[in-house]
UniProtKB/TrEMBL annotation:
This is Lysine--tRNA ligase. It comes from Haloferax denitrificans ATCC 35960. It catalyses: tRNA(Lys) + L-lysine + ATP = L-lysyl-tRNA(Lys) + AMP + diphosphate. Signal peptide: none annotated. A motif ('KMSKS' region) lies at residues 321-325. It is an enzyme of class 6 (ligase).
Length: 557
C-alpha cells in the first residue's frame, strides 16, 4: 500500500537479485501458494477478500501495481483451489492533497507535466480531500476519480479482475460509521496504542479529522465528541506538511462521522473491518512503520484479527527509487508499449521478497528471462528450480497455455524493427530458423507482434537498434577500391558466415584493399541505412536475410 501519511519513509532502493522466483523457500515452487496456505489455515469465510490500496497523490505508476499484481496471483491460486475470491483495491481518496505532484498521467496513461493541465485546479485545493478536487484534465468528476480510472484501466489491460473502492464512498454510505463510533468511544485506548508509534499524540488528541464546512479542508483539531448525535465539534486549524503549512480558515463547526475521516493509521485497520479483509500485501516501508501500529490498533482498539500480511520489496526503476514527486516513474501503459502483458505479469510473479531493478535500457534481459521461464514450463530448460517455479506460476502469467508460440529474442525483434517491410521481416526470421514453410500464419503474426514493441524500445532508449534499414538502394558515390572491397565482402557473406565472422572480415577486407577503416564502415552504413553511422555492422548484417545483404553489398536493385 502507498499513502500520503507523512510519518512514512521513502521506499528503499535496491538492486536486482536473481530472476528464478522463490525456489529456495517455497515448497510449492511459487510464493503465492505459501500465502494461500496461510489464508486457508484461518478457515476464512467466503468470499475470501484480497485487498490493496493507494492514496491518489500523483501518477498512477507501475509501483502502485505491486499490490494489485501480488494480490492477483494469490487470488488466482485461491480460485484454483475452489474459493470464491473478491479482490478489492481501495483509493484513500478522502485524504487531503498535501503537495503538488510534479507529473500526472492523462486518461491514456501518458505522463504529462503540470504545465500541460490546469495545475490551478490542484494548487487552489491543497488540504482538501482528493474527491473534492476538480480533475485537472477536465474529464472526470474529480481528481480522485481520474486517478482511480487509470488504475482500473491498467488492471483491465493486464487482465486483473479488481474491484476499485472509494474510501469517500465508504464514509458517505455509512460503512465506516460503526468503526468511527467505536474508535471515538475508546479514544483513550486509541491514544494509548497510537502513542507507542507516533510522538505527537497528547491528551487532547482525537483520532478523527473533520472536513471544514467553510473551506472544505481537512482539519485535525476536534474540540468535542457527541457519540449519541454521531458528531464532533472542530476548529479549522493549519496543517503542517514537512516545512510547509496549509492554512486553515479558523471556522468553528460541527461535523457528522460521515463528514470527516479517521487518521490513516486508524483508517487502514478500519478498512480491514469494513471490507472483511483476509489478505493484504504491502511494501517494506509499511512493515517497518504502519503495519505494527495497524496490527496493534486492529487487535487492541477495534478487537478484530488483522489480515494475513505479506511484505514485498520495492523494485527500483533504472537504479533509483520509484517516486512521483521526483519524477522517476513509468506507467503500465508505457510498459505495455514495450512489452507483452505476459512479460509484465512475469515480472510481478517473481519472488516479491527479493529486491529488483527494472532497468529500461536492458528490457531485453527481462524478456529473455521470460522466454526462458516459458521454455522451462515446457521442459526445455535444464534448471530444476526454474522449472519448478515455471510449472506452477506460468499458467497464471499467460492468458492461454500453448506450446506452439514462437518468441523472437527481443534484440532480434529490434533488428527486425529497423525495416517496415513485413516480407523482409519474415525472411530474416526464417533465415535465423524461427519460422519455416510450415509455420502457421497466425503463429508468425503473433511472433512478429513483438517487433513493434522492440522498435519502440529502441526509439525510447535511442540505443544501437534505433536505426532504419533502407529497403531500396540509396544513392552512393564510392571510389573503385571501396566498390571492389564491397564485392569481396559480398562473396564472403554469400558463403553463409555468421555476424561475428562478418565483423572480422570487414576489417580484413578493408586492410587488403588499403582502405581507411572508417571509410569502409561508412560505405556499409550508407548502403544499409543511408547514414554515416549505425549499429555494429558485421553482427547486424549477420542478422539480416543473406540474399538481401549480398545484393545490397553488390549495389544491385
Amino acid at each position: 500500500m502507498t499513502t500520503d501519511d507523512p510519518s512514512r519513509g521513502d521506499a528503499p532502493a535496491a538492486d536486482a537479485t536473481d530472476g528464478d522466483g522463490d525456489a529456495d523457500a517455497a515448497h510449492h515452487g511459487f510464493w503465492a501458494d505459501e500465502v494461500a496456505d496461510e489464508i486457508e489455515a484461518r478457515d476464512p469465510d467466503e468470499p475470501v477478500v484480497v485487498k490493496g490500496g493507494v492514496s491518489p497523490s500523483g501518477v498512477a505508476h507501475l509501483g502502485n501495481f505491486n499490490e494489485i499484481m501480488r494480490g492477483y496471483f494469490v487470488a488466482e491460486v485461491l480460485r484454483e483451489r475452489g474459493h470464491e475470491v473478491r479482490q478489492v483495491f481501495t483509493s484513500d481518496d478522502k485524504d487531503p492533497l498535501r503537495k503538488l505532484p510534479r507529473k500526472l498521467a492523462d486518461a491514456d496513461g501518458n505522463i504529462v507535466g503540470l504545465g500541460e493541465v490546469d495545475a490551478g485546479a490542484l494548487g487552489r485545493n491543497l488540504g482538501k480531500p482528493y474527491t473534492s478536487i476538480p480533475d485537472p484534465f477536465g474529464e472526470a468528476e474529480s481528481y480522485a476519480a481520474h486517478f482511480a480510472a487509470l488504475l482500473k484501466a491498467d488492471a483491465d489491460r493486464l487482465g486483473v479482475p479488481v474491484e476499485m473502492i472509494s474510501n469517500t464512498e465508504l464514509y458517505d454510505n455509512g460503512d465506516f460509521d460503526p468503526v468511527v463510533e467505536h474508535v471515538l468511544e475508546h479514544a483513550g485506548t486509541a491514544r494509548e496504542v497510537l502513542g507507542e508509534y507516533q510522538s505527537k499524540v497528547d491528551e487532547d488528541y482525537v483520532p478523527f479529522n473533520p472536513v471544514c464546512a467553510e473551506c472544505g479542508k481537512i482539519t485535525e483539531t476536534v474540540t468535542d465528541i457527541d457519540l449519541d448525535a454521531g458528531t464532533v465539534d472542530y476548529v479549522c486549524t493549519d496543517m503542517t506538511v514537512g516545512d510547509n503549512t496549509i492554512d486553515g480558515c479558523g471556522h468553528e463547526g460541527t461535523a457528522t462521522f460521515r463528514e470527516g475521516k479517521l487518521p490513516w493509521r486508524f483508517e487502514w485497520p478500519g478498512q480491514w473491518q469494513v471490507l472483511g479483509v483476509d489478505f493484504e500485501p504491502f511494501g517494506k516501508d509499511h512493515a517497518e512503520g504502519s503495519w505494527p501500529s495497524g496490527k496493534d490498533i486492529a487487535e487492541n482498539v477495534l478487537g478484530i484479527e488483522p489480515p494475513v500480511p505479506m511484505v514485498y520489496e520495492w523494485f527500483t526503476l533504472n537504479g533509483e527509487a520509484l517516486s512521483s514527486s521526483a519524477g522517476n516513474i513509468v506507467t503500465v501503459a508505457e510498459m505495455l508499449d514495450l512489452l507483452e502483458p505476459e512479460v509484465l505479469r512475469y515480472f510481478f510473479a517473481l519472488n516479491p521478497r527479493k529486491a529488483r531493478d527494472l532497468d529500461l535500457t536492458r528490457l531485453d534481459q527481462l524478456v529473455d528471462d521470460f522466454d526462458r521461464f516459458e521454455r522451462a514450463y515446457f521442459g526445455d530448460v535444464d534448471d530444476e528450480s526454474l522449472t519448478r517455479f515455471a510449472e506452477r506460476a506460468y499458467p497464471f502469467v499467460v492468458d492461454e497455455v500453448r506450446e506452439d508460440r514462437v518468441r523472437l529474442p527481443y534484440t532480434f525483434a529490434a533488428v527486425l524493427g529497423m525495416t517496415d517491410d513485413e516480407d523482409l521481416r519474415v525472411k530474416m526470421a526464417r533465415n535465423e530458423g524461427f519460422f519455416d514453410e510450415d509455420t502457421p500464419d497466425e503463429v508468425v503474426e503473433e511472433a512478429l507482434g513483438r517487433v513493434e514493441r522492440a522498435r519502440r524500445w529502441a526509439e525510447k532508449m535511442d540505443n544501437q537498434y534505433n536505426y532504419r534499414l533502407q529497403v531500396d538502394l540509396p544513392e552512393f558515390d564510392f571510389d573503385p577500391a571501396v566498390e571492389a572491397a564491397l564485392d569481396e565482402l559480398a562473396d564472403f557473406v554469400e558463403e553463409n558466415h555468421d555476424g561475428e565472422a562478418i565483423q572480422g572480415e570487414i576489417y580484413e577486407t578493408a586492410r587488403r584493399h588499403d582502405i581507411e577503416m572508417g571509410d569502409f564502415f561508412a560505405a556499409g552504413y550508407r548502403l544499409f541505412f543511408d547514414a554515416e553511422q549505425g549499429p555494429r555492422l558485421g553482427e547486424f548484417l549477420g542478422e539480416l536475410e543473406r540474399d538481401f545483404v549480398v545484393t545490397r553489398l553488390r549495389r544491385e536493385d
